[in-house]
Amino acid sequence: MSARHRALAALLIGITFFSIGNSIASPALTSLASKNAPEHEQGKALGIMQSGASLARAIAPVAAGFLLNNAVGEVDDLTIERTFWTASAIMLVAFFTAIYYLVRRADDVLAS
Q: Which residues have a Cβ under 8 Å from the Cβ of 63 and sit 6 or more positions away?
């Protein structure tokens, strides 16, 4: 088996696991968004969630291509590190955003 065939097999296996994980996570996330929004704002919450997911699916491949590209057209240590640290920064922003809204929600509950 050539290197190209091994790479294609690895890609297909990775895509399979991604698809299975996405099919499990998507209904759960939709349910969480629906249950955590007030009844009169459920449509708005689901719309915002779906818009964010669609935007991520459009932007992520372009960003990944940009991050993994270099002058020689090969993936090297620098491109992997750059991609890792960019993903880490995005997750850190998401983490702090979640903490902010968790504290804000707790304050609202305590004020009620």
A: 86
